[in-house]
Specification:
Oligomer: single chain
Strand content: over 45%
Helix content: under 10%
Largest sheet: 7 strands, mixed
Order of helices and strands: EEEEEEEEEEE
Number of strands: 11
Structural class: mainly beta
């Protein structure tokens, strides 16, 4: 069973930055897509950023220009650099990995990001 472990969440002031990391238990090259989602209690989980094995990343409109996703397949890790954070970015952030074969999707347990002064 694939395991995804997120890290890097925490409390940050508005305008600040955080970098989330997600380490996979299997080779990053084995996933057709990896990404980040977030969820606020009472709301649906929403896509934040997603990157296919090859190609340009996709971002939610609300984070374009502020967040950057990157994959290091050799390290089986996906990152989310979050800049200019806003209170509306407060959520639990989940790492996602997807394989077309199956298809199969895997989720991490989440890491809490709180943006508050």
């Amino acid at each position: 069973q694939v395991q995804l472990v997120e890290s890097g969440g925490g409390l940050v002031q508005p305008g600040g930055s955080l970098r989330l990391s997600c380490a996979a238990s299997e080779s990053g090259f084995s996933f057709d897509a990896m990404g980040w989602y977030r969820q606020v209690p009472g709301n649906e989980r929403e896509m934040v950023a997603r990157q296919l094995r090859w190609g340009s990343p996709n971002y939610a409109d609300s984070v374009k220009g502020r967040f950057t996703i990157s994959r290091d397949n050799a390290k089986s890790t996906v990152y989310l650099q979050m800049n200019s954070l806003k209170p509306d970015d407060t959520a639990v952030y989940y790492c996602d990995a997807f394989r077309n074969l199956g298809p199969k999707e895997y989720w991490g347990k989440g890491t809490l990001v709180t943006v508050s002064s």
